[in-house]
Design brief:
Strand order of the largest sheet: 1-2-3-4-9-10-11-12
Shape: rod-shaped
Number of strands: 12
Largest sheet: 8 strands, antiparallel
């Protein structure tokens, strides 16, 4: 869904929003992305009407300025823009139209050329003015935001929603005064125009062009400077009557002169904090502009009288005119190549000079960058060196403290081991120590007794051996005697039988 570019109050825009698929309430009174063209992001209050359409003027993908457009009068109520600076050259008029005013269902999101809109926009001209409304009339399209003030993209200001019918003299005076005020008073007294908010509007009269487009009775300008510490607000009115010069008024007085008595700037653009010195300087320039305008009007009023002559007072033979015209053409034809050659040489010289200056600037920039880089590296190395030295110096007390702490820990460990040894020595029973001490004496005293016991034991053993030997021999003799005895008896018995 495409972004909203213009908003309306009432049934006309409600229908357009409904066709787009979103119906926005009336409390959404801003200009969307174009709110940045208003002081404090707030559009003028009190100018809302059913036949007014809010347009965020976009061209080539960007917002250029904001416009409140009257569908009833087919002229802008006001146009708001910022940082206006007089442009160096003019733009070729190519009038543009807003497609979505006449055709809410149009898919075109930006202003387009009127010639292209004839075939692509339905009901073209039903709600907005066209170039044909100005044809065969004594009025011209006068821009509220003149192209001469737009250094951004001048073509965008040629939207017919930014134009109102003006007589040639009135339009010339409006453009001249607006350019003078912007260039000599408003922008110089507001930081070059960076913080300057401009609202230009038109007050419609009862007269209408072809019963369609209202002719303005006057145009007005309100300026608000939001520069920090030096803000101010001024108003100006330019009437369409010949002979009237532009008038300077305070913003509050201007609001009372306009229909609906709107509030143009929120908080009156700073209120009591405005810089009166800058306003005095602006008024001085305004007085100069007014004097210059009166002088121009005096010259323009005297010019027809001085140029009014009879037919015979200044005869101008046609053959002489033709000869001078032919001679001028021949001289122009002969001088054109020479002029072109000088222009070519001028452009070549300027191009060479620009390239030489660019090369010198580039070399100078490189030299400065190299020197800056060397100085930066030298400074960084020096800072690193001093930081390292500082760190080492700062770490010496810490290292000494660590060594002292280690020595103290070693001494404490030695004392702890000695205490443990003493505790273990003191922990042995005294009786054991006495026994250990008396062990040699008991050993020496028991040696004779032990030797005696050994000798007694050896004597008893020898005695036992003798007793065993003699007992064994006795037993053997007894056995032998017994055997022999028995043998002798038998022999005796046997012999007695024979007897």
């Amino acid at each position: 869904m495409r972004p909203a570019r213009w908003l309306a109050l009432g049934s006309l825009l409600a229908l357009a929003r409904l066709l787009e698929g979103r119906l926005v309430g009336e409390e959404e009174a801003g200009f969307g992305e174009c709110d940045r063209f208003f002081y404090a992001g707030t559009p003028p209050a009190g100018l809302a009407a059913e036949a007014h359409v809010k347009i965020c003027q976009r061209f080539e993908g960007a917002e250029r300025f904001a416009t409140l457009y009257s569908l009833r009068d087919r002229i802008p109520v006001y146009s708001a823009f910022r940082a206006a600076r007089p442009a160096a050259a003019g733009a070729e008029p190519r009038w543009l139209v807003e497609p979505q005013i006449d055709d809410p269902t149009s898919h075109l999101e930006e202003v387009i050329a009127e010639a292209d809109a004839i075939t692509s926009v339905n009901s073209l001209g039903s709600k907005q003015a066209l170039s044909t409304d100005y044809q065969d009339s004594e009025y011209q399209t006068g821009q509220l935001y003149p192209f001469s003030l737009s250094s951004d993209l001048q073509v965008a200001t040629f939207a017919l929603t930014n134009a109102a019918p003006m007589s040639p003299s009135f339009r010339q005076r409006w453009y001249r005064n607006l350019n003078s005020l912007m260039e000599r008073a408003l922008s110089p007294q507001c930081a070059g125009g960076e913080d300057l908010y401009i609202v230009t509007g038109a007050v419609p009269s009862e007269r209408k062009l072809k019963d369609r487009v209202a002719v303005p009775a006057s145009v007005w300008l309100a300026a608000c400077c939001a520069a920090p510490g030096g803000g101010w607000a001024m108003g100006f009115v330019q009437h369409a009557r010949d002979g009237d010069v532009i008038e300077d008024v305070m913003v509050g007085e201007l609001e009372k002169l306009l229909p609906f008595k709107p509030r143009l700037f929120q908080g009156n653009c700073g209120g009591t904090e405005q810089d009166t010195e800058r306003m005095k300087k602006i008024l001085e320039v305004v007085n100069q502009v007014q004097d210059e305008e009166r002088a121009v009007q005096t010259k323009e009023g005297a010019r027809p009288l001085s140029s009014t002559k009879g037919p015979a007072s200044a005869p101008t033979p046609e053959p002489a005119e033709e000869r001078r015209s032919f001679l001028g053409k021949v001289m122009s034809f002969l001088a054109t190549p020479v002029i072109r050659l000088f222009q070519l040489l001028y452009y070549v010289a300027v191009g060479i000079l620009k390239n030489v200056m660019w090369v010198l600037w580039f070399l100078t920039k490189q030299v400065f960058n190299g020197v800056e880089s060397c100085l930066y590296r030298l400074g960084s190395a020096t800072m690193s060196y001093f930081l390292a030295i500082g760190e080492e110096l700062a770490s010496i007390p810490w290292k000494v403290l660590k060594v002292v702490v280690k020595i103290i820990r070693a001494i404490l460990r030695i004392l702890c081991c000695l205490l443990k040894a003493v505790c273990r020595v003191l922990g042995i029973p005294v009786r054991v120590l006495v026994d250990v001490a008396t062990f040699p004496m008991h050993t020496i005293g028991a040696a004779p007794i032990v030797c005696k016991d050994i000798a007694v034991g050896l004597g008893g053993a020898i005695s036992l051996l003798f007793d065993a030997a003699f007992g064994t021999m006795g037993s053997l003799f007894q056995v032998i005697f017994s055997i022999c005895k028995r043998i002798g008896y038998r022999v005796t018995f046997d012999n007695s039988g024979e007897l």
